[in-house]
Structures are given as C-alpha cells and as structure tokens.
Design a protein that fits this description.
By secondary structure, this protein is α/β, with parallel strands linked by helices. Helices cover 46% and strands 15% of the residues. The chain contains eight helices and seven strands; from the N terminus they run E-H-E-H-E-H-E-H-E-H-H-E-H-H-E. It has a seven-stranded parallel sheet with strand order 3-2-1-4-5-6-7, sandwiched between helices. Helix 2 links the parallel strand 2 and strand 3. The two termini are 32 Å apart.
Length: 243
C-alpha cells in the first residue's frame, strides 16, 4: 500500500474491464477507494467493484456516459456521495471505430471526438474545483500510440487521442502550482478483449514480439498517482512500437 494514496478516492472511467479494470484494482491495492464507471456492461463493473471490496477498500459501480455533460455531473456527484470528493481521476473510457478515409462522415467524426476527447474535458472540469480547493489532485488520461505515430484504423481516433495529449499538457501547465498533476499514458496493443479479438492485429507488430499486459499500464498509473513532481508527461507503454 502506498502511504501517499492511502485513503484517497479514485474514479476510473470505463473501469469494468481491460486497462480500466487493471488500473482500478491497482489503485485499490495502493490504498484508494474506487468508483468504477461503466456505460453498458454493469456486470463487469460490479465484479470489479466486488474485487476491490474484497481488498478491504470501499468501491461503487456507477453508470454514466462520460461523453455527455448531464451524465458526467450525475456520475461525479454520485461518486462524491458514496466515497467523498475525487482525488484521482483516470480518464480511461474511449472507443475505436475502424473506418477508411472514404467511410468517415461528419457524424462518425463527431462521435469519436466526443467519446475520446470531449469526455476528458467534461470529467476534468467536473472534478477540478474540489481538487483545486484541497490543493491535491491527480488526473491521468489514457491516450494511444495512434496519437503519436498515426493510425491505420481511423483518422478521427488518432486526432482525438492527440487532442488528449495536448489537453494533458495544457491542464498541467495551468495547474502546476495548485497541487494538481496531469499526465497521460499512451499504450500500444495491450492484450485487451478488443485487441486479442482483432484478426488483423499480431504480436509481431511490436518490437518486443508480444502484446502488452493491462497490469503494465496499471503500474504506470499508480506511479503517476503517487508522484507529486511529474506533470504534463505522456508515458509510452508500447513495447518499442513508437520511440
């Protein structure tokens, strides 16, 4: 358990499975109580929350579409009522849409930007007032190697995730003297349900020759939550895919 994180309150968006679940469990192991957000897969979020409770920490599963402001406000208020004001926000929720250039439409562009980038803005704005008042907060944003190297899957996804990196740096600069750090994690080909099920994605695309593990992203998240001097950084967890 981390003395720095003991008793802190964390909210992980998309925390019921994959990287989000691993981060939620790792933060709980480090001493945090955790709100596990989900959109549709309630059973997964409840199972993650129950795993956290078995560790002796408080946990709650909360439904909400973090790309919608009304849901965000309801989510943050509910987390505050159940656990207390949020100290650690992990903006993990996102969506990949595979579309060729000629397939993209204004609707699909706006949808991917809303889910992957606007959600980061909405969640950050919702938790920031309490963090600034306490002069302590950690915001960790999940971006992607697609933001750094470009993506063959979708221009809109790369653009949204690149926007996350820019937003991370800007928030970090603005909040540097207020005790709130803002950092990002940029994974590549982590062995999640989505990656493993994709027949076009192979481990040999990674220099290390294997997919990453969700726990390897979670370790970085705990480090970022524990470190008071690191801010504005994008930490690559990508097996050497982009350097």
């Amino acid at each position: 358990m981390s003395a720095i994180l003991s008793g802190r309150k964390a909210l992980v968006t998309g925390g019921g499975r994959g990287i989000g679940k691993a981060i939620a469990l790792a933060l709980a192991t480090a001493g945090c109580d955790v709100a596990v957000n989900y959109v549709n897969r309630e059973a997964d979020a409840e199972a993650t929350a129950e795993d956290i409770r078995r560790m002796g920490r408080h946990a709650v599963a909360l439904q909400g579409d973090v790309s919608k402001s009304d849901d965000v406000n309801r989510l943050v208020n509910a987390a505050g009522s159940d656990l207390g004001s949020i100290d650690v926000l992990v903006n993990n929720a996102g969506r990949v849409m595979v579309e060729r250039i000629e397939q993209m439409t204004e609707v699909s562009w706006n949808d991917i930007i809303q889910v992957n980038l606007t959600s980061v803005f909405l969640m950050t704005q919702a938790v920031l007032p309490a963090m600034r008042e306490r002069k302590w907060g950690r915001i960790i944003n999940l971006t992607s190697v697609a933001a750094q190297a470009g993506s063959m899957l979708g221009v809109h996804y790369s653009a949204a995730k690149a926007g996350v990196i820019a937003a991370t740096k800007s928030y970090a600069r603005l909040l540097a003297k207020e005790g709130v750090t803002v950092n990002a994690i940029a994974p590549a080909l982590i062995a999640t349900e989505m990656v493993v099920a994709n027949p076009h994605v192979k481990p040999d695309m990674i220099p290390m020759g294997r997919f990453g593990q969700v726990e390897e992203c979670a370790e970085v998240a705990v480090m970022l939550a524990s470190n008071a001097y690191m801010t504005g950084q994008t930490i690559a967890v990508n097996g050497g895919m982009y350097m």
